[in-house]
Amino acid sequence: MRTIAAVSAAAVMAAAASWPQGAAADDFSFTVVAGHPPITAGVAAIRDFFIPEVNRRLEEAGGNHTITWNEAYAGALADVQGVLEAVEGGVGDFGYVPHLFEADKLPLEQITYVTPFGSADLKTMMRLVRDLHDEVPEMAQAWRDNNQLMLAAVGVDTYHLATTFPVESVEDISGRKLSTAGLQTNWLRGTGAVPVAGALPDYYNAIQTGLTEGTVTFGSAMAPYKFFEVAPHITKVNFGAQSASALTVNLDVWEGLPDDLKEIIQQVAIEYQDYAADNYTNSAEKSLNIAAEGGAKIKEASDEMRAGFANAMPNIALEWAKSLDDRGVPGTKALEAYLRLSEEAGVSFSRNWLAE
Asked: Does the keyword field hold Ligase (predicted)?
């Protein structure tokens, strides 16, 4: 269930009144909303890079504009499934939107989740997503339909298994319940595993209480969310880096900003995209090291196991594309463009997602 934090209208107005507004028209106050806490690398990158870098460049440009930032992370104003609506409705001005939970409203943004087993190079994958936006204007239009502009594509490092039991083959997860999110649940089709939809903040308790027996998640999440404590068997399947979120801005807010301020924000947002990608990649290595030190048993999946996952599932990419075509959304156009751009960038997949 998607939820915007339950605060009364009076409370919101009172809080807004308490934020410094500035006496002149060139002083701004913005609220950044994230359902995830800043232990999530993409949110940390907003706090540690995007906000201070925008402020630094404004000062460097002569100080004609100043911004006071209110940082509402960890569900302070919206949970992970409510950020899109929070920014759309103006509860937040900027948002860290996990669009993997928004398949209905942002269907084309799910492109990497229906084409797993690609590259683990997150920075390359996010640049591919931006290039895809240039080729498929319906992607940007979907954000506009939700009263937002995407400033940066934010992904996560490659996905692995963390389980309560050892995994030697695909057959070992048959009948097991695993925590997953969004269209990622499709990765388990054909394996006999039972996907249980959820979100990162829920997985630990789900595993600890026996609701699930592990998770399919990215490496950088293993240590911050302490999954290795309850699921100590980590199998590095390498499902591929994924485009999971976006840094966005409310369109009404954006259209009211002066051009020079927009230019600085857009420049920093592009750099934030790479910064966040590096943050995730570096955090993944550290996270797995911490997990190992904490007693996790980590091993690389064999080529046979990885091929087993890739070939067990039906062609989820073509299914997705055709279902969107039927709704009047250019799924096949997006899929063909994405795979062509991937090939041009030297990215290969363990399976031909265009083959029937």
From this structure: no
Contacts of 269 (CB under 8 A, 6+ apart): 50, 151, 152, 247
Q: What is the DSSP letter of 78?
A: B
Task: For tokens 């073509």, name the residue.
Answer: 318
Tokens of residue 214, six digits: 């592990």
pLDDT band at 356 (very low <50, low <70, confident <90, very high): confident
Residue-level pLDDT at 101: 93
Structure tokens at 100: 């993997």
15-106+119-156+242-284 CATH fold: D-Maltodextrin-Binding Protein; domain 2 (3.40.190)
CA distance 356 to 114: 15
For 246-267, the pLDDT digits (tens) are: 999 999 999 999 999 999 999 9
Query: Which residue in 210, 208, 241, 209 sits closest to 226, CA to CA?
Result: 208
Nearest Cα residue to 324 out of 136, 91, 151: 136
Encoded tokens for 6: 């339950």
Per-residue pLDDT tens over the stretch 222-231:
999 999 999 9
Render pLDDT for 69-84 as a digit per residue (tens, 0 to 9): 999 999 999 999 999 9
Distance CA 275, CA 295 (A): 30
Single pTM value for the model = 0.88
Q: How many Cα neighbours within 13 Å face the side chain of 105? A: 18
- Look up residue 151 and give its two tokens: 């400033």
* Residue 302 DSSP one-character state: P
pLDDT of residue 167: 96
Domain residue limits, the chain: 15-106+119-156+242-284, 159-241+295-344
Other Cβ atoms within 10 Å of 345 Cβ, number: 15
Share of residues in the chain with pLDDT > 70 (%): 93
Fold equal for 15-106+119-156+242-284 and 159-241+295-344: yes
Q: What is the CATH number of domain 159-241+295-344?
A: 3.40.190.170
